Amino acid sequence: MTISKDTEQQISHEEGLYLRQTYFDKAKRIVIKVGSAVLTDENGIDEKVIANIARDLSFLKKSGREIILVSSGAVAAGKRNLTLTDNIKIGLVEKQALAAIGQPSLMQSYVVAFEKCQQRVAQVLLTHSDLENRDSYLRVRSTLLALFRFDTIPILNENDTVAVEELRFGDNDMLAALIANLIDADMFICLTDVVGLYTANPRTDPSAQPVYTVREVTKEIEAMAGNLKSILGTGGMQSKIRAAKIVATGSGSSFIGPGKKDSILQHLFSGEMIGTFFLPSAAKAKPRKQWIEHVLRPKGNLVLDGGASVALTENGCSLLPSGIIEVRGVFGVGDAVQCLDRSGKIIATGLVNYNSTDVNSIKQHHSHDIETILGVKDYDEVIHRDNLVLL
Ligand code: GLU
After folding, report:
1. What is the pTM of this model?
2. 217: containing domain
3. Are the C-beta atoms of residues 158 and 125 closer than 8 Å to each other?
4. Which of 32, 131, 340, 381 has CB atoms 3.0–4.6 Å from 318's, for a disulfide?
5. Are residues 206 and 283 in the same domain?
6. 240 and 302 housed in the same domain
7. DSSP state of 49
8. Is the CB–ligand 1 distance for residue 74 below 6 Å?
9. pLDDT tens digits, 332-379
10. What is the CATH number of the domain that holds 380?
């Protein structure tokens, strides 16, 4: 698919340069994610890359910024340790075991490299369920902020060894984006093995142009990420674009660019036009609503009638039982569910005050009937508008 250069969304080269300089200058809290493709070569972890990252990040830290590094590479480091031959079948369990072997040696490489730059680091391993629980989500935030006060660069990775398949972040792009929003980062920098976004696949289309600045992640931009699928492997660029979109809603900007380039961050912060830069959205979503929308995974669906759909989307109302016509899935009190209109379009996501059995019993009834039906009434609303995010 070839896409016009208009996809730069009418940002001229000069304006793009100016915007970058402005955002890079004022970025004080930054999450930097480095992928396995950058960190590894055919022999496993590439120590030269680690040394380069340590130098670059220490440089940023010493210029008064707060930095988090999200680093992959545990599985790759584990493979190097075991010197596995190609004919050994590596499934999920083996990968989890390899991560357990590789994570300490990955950290060891970082500790040595950062020590040379007189910079202290810390290890933080997280699973998705650590962020799904609101209390531990906020606890992670306090710990990371305390590490900043200790002048430390936290190095994060998914705790692969205990992560359950369906609850995984999926990849560290998502982990990094959620952490960026959790700590109100000004910027998310994703270092990868591509130079940035192109209007078409540069390998097959000679007219492909680099896209330096993206005002908003639209469908067109998402389609461009699809162009690079063949280069990066399944989903590669798409998950990075999704991460940039999530960070934009938290009012952070994002950068996607080549991680193997020497002193990439120093080049970037001195204003060089490399990679692709994504501007933040003008309006910042409330932190609790960001958590509901991006961290929680919906456990079911509620289909709403026309009146309830309009009440939610146009009048900012809570969801009452009378507007619910169908309940799908099994969920408990406090779980996230999606609200669909009659045509099946997702219009909102929110936290329910009643479990799926109770919602089934009270649906299409007035709130004053709840006590008669259930024997007890905790709330008038099935979803209070403070716990509802319109999509
Ligand atoms: N957590 C994995 C590792 O350290 C990598 C996940 C990813 O590549 O996004 O090996």
Report:
1. 0.90
2. 5-290
3. yes
4. 381
5. yes
6. no
7. H
8. yes
9. 999 999 999 999 999 999 999 999 999 999 999 999 999 999 999 999
10. 2.30.130.10
